[in-house]
Amino acid sequence: MERRLFRTRRLFLALALLAMLGAWGLAWWHSREVAARAEEDAARQVRQAVQMATAQARLTLAVADEALRRLQDLARKEGVEGFRREGEMLSRGIGNPLNRAALIGADGQMQANFLGGSAAPLLDVRDREYFRHFRQQPEDHIYVSEPLHGKASQVWIIVFARPVLEKGRLQGVIFVGVDVRELARQFEGDFDRGLQVALLSSGGRIIAHSGEPSGAIGQPAAAGWVPDTRLGDGPGPVEGEARLGQTWPVPGWSLQVYAGLSRQQLDNAVREHARMSLLPAGLLSLLLGLAGLFLYRGLRRLERHEATQRREALRSRQILANMGEGVLLLDAAGQVGYANSQASAWLGDCVGRTFAQALAAAEFEIVNEDGEPWQHPDPLTGVCLKAGHTLDAWLLLPQEDRWLQLHAAPLPAGESGRSDAGAATGPEQSGGAVVTLIDRTVEHSRLSESAVTGAVLDNMNDAVLILDARWRIERANPGFCRLSGYEPAALLGQMPQLLRSARHEEDFFTEVNETLRQRDHWSGRQWSRRQDGSEICCWLSINAVRDAHRRVQRYIIVARDITRQELHEQQLWRQANFDPLTGIANRHRFQDSLDKVLAQAQRHGSQFAVCYLDLDLFKQVNDRYGHAAGDALLHQVATRMQRLIRAEDTLARIGGDEFALIVPSLHQRQDAAAVAGKICAALNRPFPLDMGLAEIGVSVGIAIYPDDGRDAAGLLSAADLALYSAKARGRGNFAFAADCVMTNVPAGGAVQ
Fold first, then answer.
1. Which of 78, 267, 520, 540: CA 20 to 30 A from 283?
2. 331, 614, 616, 657: which is the annotated catalytic residue?
């Protein structure tokens, strides 16, 4: 069989080789034919192009020469007027490519000049080559110029000129001009793409050509171009590209026409045809190669299949032997037929024993997840081998507290598991089972620890919140639910922002996060919002839990309600710092604020004002209406002044009817005068009381830091002096300490 297949393969290979050689030979011959035909077509195209361009050039030159002769006759017979009539019509270019006609006197000054059917400026052309030519050779013949840039038209033109002679003497010169763009359009007729046609002067300068660039007009032919009437390869005259070209002189004129086909485009076309010719041979080779591949694969298939089975069996045995899990194969009777190394390490030499016997020998017990033994003495036989169901259980080795997770899956029954009647009977209903054992001792221990931790959290009085690395709530103990008023289900997956109070700015939480990032711990007071909208103050302790790679895994928050303590402390602080009658700062608060403003001014080199304020005529109101009316008046006085000052200013009551004011961040002392003036004006207005209107006033003494004092005592003393001066001036006004003379100050330095 193998020898016959070998002979068949050799025959097929020989026939395939012959077919491929024939196909590739035919393709090579066809590509040679295509290349030869392409060269012939290209040569014919170039010859036709050069002949056509030569004919067009001769026609253009004949038109120009005929026009020159007519103008020459008119100039001789009728002079300038006759030339003007014919030259104007001729320059319109109707039926001819000419667009320029001019008559030049013997002195080189134009006598008539027409461009596009209109009169053009009369120019001096003594410097032009065609004029100098006839001045040096006064003979009647046509002159064809090199391309030149027209002075009037500002475009490239070709000049055709003839002299006006009288008795052999030069009387003038007539010329007609052709726009080289018109000549180029004649070369853009029916020529194929890639074919270049050019008209060149006798000096080898480019007069006109097809295609771009137009900047080549008037330039010498490209380096390497040599005019040759024979068809051949060489650089083109315009851009020097390699072309199959031919040069042909225009008969009767000192001009030449070039036509050339791009060698690169021609070669590309030939190669494309060659590729198309080789395509059938390539396809045939591909098909024969595929057929040979399929034949080879067919011959090798059985051998590969058998080798694969051997490798798979070897690999499976190696995988089972090196697995970290224990694997056992049981037959229908529950006897162990195979055990890998890990299973043998746990159960010992168990091959040949039943699974129950192997467990008993290794002192393992079959239990559930809670460690309670199964009620059935051999659940693997009853559940898996007989009933055909999978079994998930645990094996416990009490001496080592080792936990193995067991998974048993039944195998399909074989023919030996069937009775003659075809029905499944007895324990041979299953074809055996595959048992896997995984060591879960560590995981089981963690589960136990987690259960203990959960029980501890559930019984704590403090509120505990556990968040993941993205600050999403994973668990809230009952203490936290009681504190916040939320049910556990409403908190899971949420962000702690739903508990935030508006009392804290965003900077507060930014600082908390930065502290956690640097120290993994933060503790402090924080106001939170309960589910019912009420707010509580908690003492929070937040800890970040990181893994071995220093990545945050959890955040644990422990909270305790300190609302009563916080409110009590706030009440005590307010009583210690604010006047109970007016609600503004008291003497203690004023002194503390003065120390802070003084330190800031010393640090930044700024100035501020300290003002003493004493009510005028307050004693009369108190004596007339009673102390209750006096208290009401003081409250109204504080309210009016509070409305006039800024948030950063400090207003305090330091005595019965005595007040003090700190005005920080002054630019000039007039700022303090403006504040004092507004206060005096406001307190001079009547105050409505239950008993009637009360009319009082206020006197203000102002001290400026650092001019009037560099410490608190000095500033207060200066403000007291200024107040005394304001009282002495008649009350109801203010005075600066710097304007006072330290005389007639009562003992003690205080104004009564």
1. 267
2. 657
